[in-house]
């Protein structure tokens, strides 16, 4: 299959259109992620992060520089769903934070 000069001349316009579509998708994705960022309990946080034990979750949330965001309401601890997902992505994907994964919930 050979590429003609006309096909090559169209590439910049096609790349620009693709870039615009990707930017629109990113805006929509950001809005969606913001809309689902609710507080979850410890059991759900364990599922979302992939951490096996409550003790490890407690240690990880208190580690300096952690991605896990939480707040306490009396004796109950609530975690940000988004931060749990970000944490899992950073651990599973070598810190890149992109790609596909199954989200428990």
Structure in words:
With 105 residues, the protein is mainly α. It folds into two domains: 35 residues; 54 residues. The protein has a three-stranded antiparallel β-sheet with strand order 1-3-2. Strand 2 and strand 3 form a beta hairpin. Helix 2 packs parallel to helix 4. It is elongated, with a radius of gyration of 20 Å. The termini are far apart. About 6% of the residues have low confidence.
Into which percentage range does the β-strand content fall?
A: 5-15%
Sheet of most strands: 3 strands, antiparallel
Net shape: elongated
DSSP strand count: 3
Distance between the termini: 47 Å
How many domains in all?
2
Question: What pattern of helices and strands is seen along the backbone?
Answer: HEHHEEH
Radius of gyration: 20 Å
Give the strand order of the largest sheet, numbering strands 1, 2, ... along the chain: 1-3-2
Helix percent band: 55-70%
- Number of H- or I-type helical stretches: 4
Averaged pLDDT, please?
86
Q: Could you list the spans in which at least 5 consecutive residues all have pLDDT below 50?
A: 96-101
> What structural class is derived from the secondary structure elements?
mainly alpha
Short description:
This protein has 105 residues and is mainly alpha-helical.
Characteristic terms for this protein:
105 residues, mainly alpha, 2 domains, three-stranded antiparallel β-sheet, 3 strands
How do the strands and helices of this protein lay out in sequence?
Elements: H1 5-35, E1 39-40, H2 42-49, H3 54-61, E2 70-73, E3 76-80, H4 81-92
Antiparallel strand pairs: 1-3, 2-3
Helix pairs in contact: 2-4
